[in-house]
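Example record

The entry below shows one chain as it appears in the dataset: sequence first, then structure tokens.
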Amino acid sequence: MTLSRSDGFRVMTTMDRESELELVGRLRAGDPDAFDAAHHAFNGRLYNFLARLSNRRDVAEDLLEETWLRLVKHAHRLRPDTRLGPWLFTVARRVHASYCRSRILEDSHAGDLIGLWPNGRPLPSPFDALEASETGRRVARAFASLPVAYREALLLVAIEGLKCADAADICDVSAEAMRQRVSRARALLARRLTDADAPILASLKEITT
């Protein structure tokens, strides 16, 4: 199995800038329907990110709830020109970092990767499709063994399709540092896999360049 931009695996939610700004305005005003709309657009993506970052479904669910609670609490303080996706991923990343500090969670922890996603998840990620095969399980285990900084770089750039500059803002690093993280993550992942997994690695290289 190979992954490419044409395979339809990208976990993206289409929202033009005008619609996003209108939604931000409604969130700032406390419109309950706006929170429902934001949840519908981003909940699956945020769960994907947090589950892969923590390698634990129960932890991801708790961190996801905290992420949405922070939107509810701080929505009135959003800037009118806020880019909602990057804002939410920044919050999710900080919530996860706070959890790691409080629990002293090791980067190398690899939980049960099979059946990680709940039923009814609206948008599949590349790893969802891959995990159905033995090759996919090898990739998932190798991915889970990467340090958190490398996992989040691949998740944001390869899976979510964010630009390196946006991913860099979320992770509070320079765009060049993010590009280096993505490159090093891809190289480290390659070293942990076999020659039989080369097509998948080639796809990740295509997506992240």
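Notes for this example: The chain has ten helices and no strands. The CA atoms of residues 35 and 185 lie 34 Å apart.
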